[in-house]
Write a structure and sequence with these properties.
By secondary structure, the chain is mainly beta. It folds into three domains: 126 residues, Immunoglobulin-like (Sandwich); 130 residues, Cupredoxins -  blue copper proteins (Immunoglobulin-like); 124 residues, Immunoglobulin-like (Sandwich). Pfam families: Cu-oxidase, Cu-oxidase_2, Cu-oxidase_3.
């Protein structure tokens, strides 16, 4: 398995971010401080000069048909060749033959049905991250799609508009499968959001950011030690540019790195955050920097309207350049960012309080939740349908000093506090994934509605969940 811990990228995290020993003798086997040594700048030099390739926008998939009011899609899970280094293709695992899988654009209230056919020679499955779905359609880690088999998932899309994503969640192999490319956007639009007149159409751009290890031959390296994942990819391209008009854009930022945080700045331009994991915030928040980690989403609006043609603005992580925006033209703009977006739902009255801990065992090679490795035959929490609960989530990894992330399936939650203090700006809104530093406790609240059955909760550093840092709850009547 890969080395644990965030390898560079988030300046807000302390220098104690280290890697744990690897389970593979071929990989890094000791503590190494995180920082610029594992950043995207070094990778850009290795792959060629920055800003030489245009950032592609992931293809938006068209339904094969509409049946009884349901949009129907078919997506093969297949190998493909992809050139991270121009002229040097390397094997990847894909949804539909694309390294960033095709975007599914759904509508609130319009169901979607997706049939995935596994053309790989390994098992897979699909989890729609951030979605409110029945257990049978959640992508349960043991509900596997065998090679040559198909599985159909039904997504009712009853939730408000949000930037979601779909990815492999087959237990024990999710880390490798997602690293090799099994990830894509799933965007839910709703009429209430459309009425706000935010930037839309071609000015609403999904941007997937992650890291990878690419060797001198252009090969995507696996197994991969975290400190060696020095290439930062933006929609599959290292340090690309993107041409924009002098007007407002909505950028949907998604971090799909297996074990990576980013702290982003934009060359002095303000970034106006309008949404987080679960959709719109109550009001826009102007940010000079944004920190987000594996699995999190942040929607921002950037206004280029006052910038002269020829202006260039670099989106940077502390480790190096990520993406350059080039203002190349003018365009009409009737969009706006209103002062009020969408009120958050009432928190409700909690009736149950639970404690969750995350850490590695003493060997560093097994992940634990509440001191136990994942066992699909064990139910860790029974949750009453309709209940509102508070969970105290603590990173107790004092031996390895590794950060972890907490991801809850089925429901969005609200962050109430961090170590007893107010949540940060990065915790705002409805969340399903949050960073938890060593020794830190976050207090979250969720209401469990409608669906029954078993759902996981886990560290969303997939290198950690794949070796056991996962547990499960069962929603009961």
């Amino acid at each position: 398995m890969t080395a644990g811990g965030v390898a560079g990228g988030v300046a807000l995290l302390p220098s104690a971010l280290n890697t744990r020993p690897s389970a593979s003798a071929t990989e890094h086997t000791g503590h190494e401080p995180a920082g610029s040594a594992a950043g995207g700048g070094r990778a850009a030099a290795a792959l060629g000069a920055s800003f030489t390739q245009c950032m592609p926008v992931p293809q938006q998939l068209t339904p094969v048909r509409r049946s009884d009011g349901t949009d129907v899609y078919r997506i093969p899970i297949k190998t493909a060749q992809y050139a991270f280094t121009p002229g040097k293709p390397t094997p990847v695992r894909t949804f539909g033959g694309q390294f960033v899988g095709p975007t599914i654009r759904a509508k609130t209230g319009t169901p979607v049905e997706v049939t995935f056919t596994n053309q790989l020679d390994v098992v897979s499955n699909v989890h729609l991250h951030g979605a409110h779905n029945a257990a049978v359609d959640d992508g349960y880690p043991m509900d596997l799609i065998a090679p040559g088999a198909s599985r159909t998932y039904h997504y009712p899309n009853k939730q408000q508009g949000a930037t979601l994503w779909y990815h492999d969640h087959s237990h024990g192999s999710e880390s490798e499968n997602v690293y090799k490319g099994l990830h894509g956007f799933y965007i839910i639009d709703d009429p209430a959001e459309a009425a706000l007149n935010l930037p839309s159409g071609q000015y609403d751009v999904p941007i997937m950011i992650r890291d990878a290890q690419i060797d001198a031959n252009g090969t995507l390296v696996w197994p991969s030690s975290v400190p060696d994942r020095t290439t930062v990819l933006v929609n599959g391209v290292a340090a690309p540019y993107f041409q924009v008009a002098a007007r407002k854009y909505r950028f949907r930022l998604l971090n799909t790195g297996n074990e990576r945080g980013f702290r982003l700045t934009l060359g002095g331009l303000p970034m106006v955050q309008i949404a987080s994991d679960g959709g719109l915030l109550p009001a826009p928040v102007t940010r000079t920097d944004i920190t987000f980690t594996s699995g999190e989403r942040v929607d921002i609006v950037v206004d280029f309207s006052n910038q002269p043609i020829g202006s260039k603005f670099v989106l940077s992580d502390v480790s190096g350049p990520v993406l350059r925006f080039d203002v190349t033209r003018t365009a009409a703009d009737t969009s706006r960012v209103p002062a009020t977006l969408r009120a958050l739902p009432a928190l409700g009255t909690p009736t149950v309080e639970r404690n969750v801990t995350m850490r590695f065992d003493d060997s560093g090679n097994v992940g634990l939740v509440n001191d136990q490795a994942y066992d699909p035959n064990r139910v860790d929490f029974q949750v009453k349908r309709g209940a509102t609960e508070i969970w105290n989530v603590t990173n107790t990894d004092t031996v390895w000093g590794a950060p972890h992330t907490f991801h809850l399936h089925l429901e969005q939650f609200r962050v109430l506090s961090r170590d007893g203090a107010a949540p940060t700006l990065d915790d705002a809104g409805r969340k399903d994934t949050v960073l938890v530093m060593p020794g830190e406790t976050i207090r979250v609240q969720a209401t469990f509605t409608e669906y029954l059955g078993k759902y996981p909760f886990h560290c969303h550093f997939l290198d950690h969940s794949s070796i056991g840092m996962m547990a499960q709850m069962e929603i009961v009547p």
